[in-house]
Write a structure and sequence with these properties.
Strand order of the largest sheet: 1-2
Structural class: alpha+beta
Largest sheet: 2 strands, antiparallel
Order of helices and strands: EEHEEHH
Length: 88
């Protein structure tokens, strides 16, 4: 257990977390590793976030709603004849 103080950091509050604590949750590169914060009762839990796949990283800035608005189409797409027990 480590006792620390919460400090003002701009308009937010912050904690300095020692490298030894981050190492215990496998955070090695603070510039690249994300963490998840959750609240459980009166506890703040910090966990290393799962890494995104390369594909998800490429689409991280993709705005699906904007894409749909900009690419409206009334075309009909033929998906072929049913080949099983599809309910069409």
């Amino acid at each position: 257990m480590l006792l620390t103080k919460i400090k003002n950091w701009g308009n937010s509050q912050g904690l300095r977390i020692p490298k030894s604590i981050l190492k215990q949750i496998d955070v090695k590169n603070i510039a690249e590793d994300d963490v998840m914060l959750t609240v459980d009762g009166k506890k703040i839990i910090i966990e290393k976030a799962p890494k995104k796949s390369k594909l998800m990283q490429r689409f991280s800035n993709f705005d699906y709603e904007k894409y749909l608005k900009e690419n409206k189409s009334d075309r009909v797409v033929d998906k072929g004849k049913p080949v099983g027990r599809e309910l069409w």
